[in-house]
Amino acid sequence: MKKVHLVAACGVGMASLAGMLKEKGFRVTGSDANVYPPMSTQLEKLGIPLLSPYAAGNVPSDADLVIVGNAVSRDNPECLEAARRGVSMMSMPQALAKFFIAGKESIVVAGTHGKTTTTSLLAWSLYDLGDDPSFLVGGVPRNFPVSYRVGAGPRFVIEGDEYDTAYFDKGPKFLHYLPKIVLLTSIEFDHADIYRDLPHLVESFRKLIRLIPRDGLLVACADYADVVAVAAEAVCPVMFYTVNSETVPDSAGDGWRVRAIGEKDGFTRFRLEGRRSSHWFAIRLPGLHNAANCAAAALVLMHLGYGPDRTAEALAGFTGVRRRQEELGEFGGVLVVDDFAHHPTAVRGTIQAVRARYPGRRITAVFEPRSNTSRRKIFQKEFAEALAEADAAIVAGVFGADKIPSGERLDPDEVAKAVRATGREALYIQEADRIVGHLAQASRPGDLVLIMSNGGFGGIQGKLIRVLSSR
Fold this sequence. Notes:
Shape: globular
Number of strands: 23
Mean pLDDT: 92
Helix content: 25-40%
Largest sheet: 10 strands, mixed
CATH class of the largest domain: Alpha Beta
CATH superfamily of the largest domain: Mur-like, catalytic domain
Strand order of the largest sheet: 8-7-9-6-12-13-14-15-16-17
Radius of gyration: 22 Å
Structural class: alpha/beta
């Protein structure tokens, strides 16, 4: 039995890998700079020892392998100790490929938007259809107790992240995942800390597409010009789908359009129209972007041989992903919704989806610039335009602002001013506690507060719920 130690074990992917390794019979330990939930709680429930802070002595004397998270630097004391002792080291994607993906049919879900939701949709549907899949997703699907599964079936569904792999491998994670089928949802500029510009980012997706074998499949969203351009390099069949375009590029497979979007009884209903057939679907997730995610998953499932009716039934049973338009509840008459949006396209899509799902409610969008791209001024104008979709907006202070040069940093006050210029209410309030105080005074029964951040945001969700509940 191998003894494996994970450095940076509290990340979603790393904690999931730790659980998968333990299920496979490995003895697992982990460490992190800070021990924090929800993944620390998951590791504790799995009986995986977790040490903090980083120290050379954390690496077990009998360790056979050290797996290194992508946020870990080369001067980490545990990595230095492993190198000194000659212990083998791997990145998380390398370990996933070696111990879990190899020998399976790998389905990789990639793209700037919708990866977590689409991966979860596909994993749940395959499970519901009796396929017994393995999966790893960068969030917690509500249909499963944890963010991973080790199944006995022939397929592994994985969220394909374009972010870099480890300090010793600066290429994107998804290049390690041995893709047989790739689902490409979108390409827009992101991850400004590691990609110079959009062409640099696009090249990573080109490399992924080149890995698909001739007998594989690429399902690609034709609403993005760069997706269409990248798809042209595939040697496998390409199946395009579109939400916004009237035309679908010619391809070896069928071309599909999403039509007839509508909300009814807590479901988003839409029709997927092909050249030779069309099929109705209904999902519990709100919004046009989620209809697109569902359409992409449906195309993969039908390609695998599942009929449209059974596919629709499985997709309708999916209940969502935590922190993706997650309804936390109504408190003091105010509905609180939590979301992970951190790119202007996602912010706009999320606000539009929430408005369609909850008509008549006054929406206050609360946004924290926290990702490496949103903290920079690259999309300052676009964030203002997206937030203006709400009735009111609050822009928080830039997370870790001191780490971004002032000339490159997003100016949240200017974003709020630009939103006000459209006729909407907007404020820049730097701290989470002050935002909560403002919302406690300004929110009225029937309102909806939409919180958007890809991090902890100072625990704003729980604080707001407590204040609203006590009004």
